[in-house]
Amino acid sequence: MNEGLIPSRYAKALYEYASENHVDERVYDMMHTLESSFASEPQLQQVMANPFVGSSDKVKLLLTASGATDDDKVFARFLQLLVDNNRMASVRDVALAYMKIYRDAHHIYLVTVTSAAPFATAEEDRLKKLIERHLNGGTMEYSHSVDPDLIGGFTVRINNEKLDASIANELKQLRLKLLSN
Q1: Residue whose C-alpha is closest to residue 117's, from 166, 68, 163, 73
Q2: What is residue 2's predicted lDDT score, i.e. its pLDDT?
Q3: Crossing angle for the helix pair 73-84 and 5-20, to the nearest 10 degrees
Q4: 119: which DSSP letter?
Q5: CA atoms in the 13 A half-sphere facing the CB of 17
Q6: Euclidean distance between CA atoms 148 and 152, whole angstroms
Q7: Chain-centre distance of CA 169, in angstroms?
């Protein structure tokens, strides 16, 4: 069976359940925190896949890693469903799938800007406004990083769409033109 299908089904069920209980945004925030925990602590995935770590310990670890509180009953109940169905090893994939479903439903775009050097505040604000106009009323989760290998300019990634206005890309295109002649 397709490994992406199972997390997607669990994520969809969680989203529908969370929406019915009016906590879909809270669950999204917890999934975002959980994914950040997985990204910063690679051993977390190994613990989830380890059959010698007890299910209750895994649940406690995930509740802590997600920032859940005693009021987050929907999330706790969902984790118990994963335990009951022996799917704890898929929890990171479920978190990623849930975030995608939530973003799609709420017209949220992942925007990543990478530049050769840090932007001045006014430049970055102008770029953000330009990107917002491109989103047709959607909102964005914005992140910015610096990569000196771009030499100059910047790249903008909106979900899977990429605009490359870097000097490194222009040099690459020029090189390809020269080689094709």
Answers
A1: 166
A2: 44
A3: 150
A4: P
A5: 17
A6: 8
A7: 26
Matching residue, tokens 């009021």: 71
Q: Strands 108-115, 153-158: parallel, antiparallel or unpaired by DSSP?
A: antiparallel
- Check if the beta carbon of residue 84 is closer than 8 Å to that of residue 105: no
Residues with Cβ within 8 Å of 38's Cβ and at least 6 positions away in sequence, in order, are: 44, 45, 65, 92, 95
Q: Where are the beta strands (DSSP E) in 37-172?
A: 108-115, 139-146, 153-158, 161-166
Distance separating alpha carbons of residues 68 and 88, to the nearest angstrom = 17
What is the predicted pLDDT for the residue at 3? 58
Give the span between the Cα atoms of 29 and 16, in whole angstroms.
16
Q: What is the mean pLDDT of each run of 10 residues along the chain (181 residues)?
A: 79 97 98 96 94 95 96 96 95 96 96 92 93 89 92 88 85 84 70
Rg (CA), the chain: 20
Contact between residue 78 and residue 14 where contact means Cβ atoms under 8 Å apart: yes
Terminal Cα-to-Cα distance of the chain (whole angstroms): 48
- The tokens describing 128, both together, are 């953000």
CA dihedral of residues 108, 110, 113, 118 (deg, nearest 10): 80
Which tokens go with 178? 């020269």
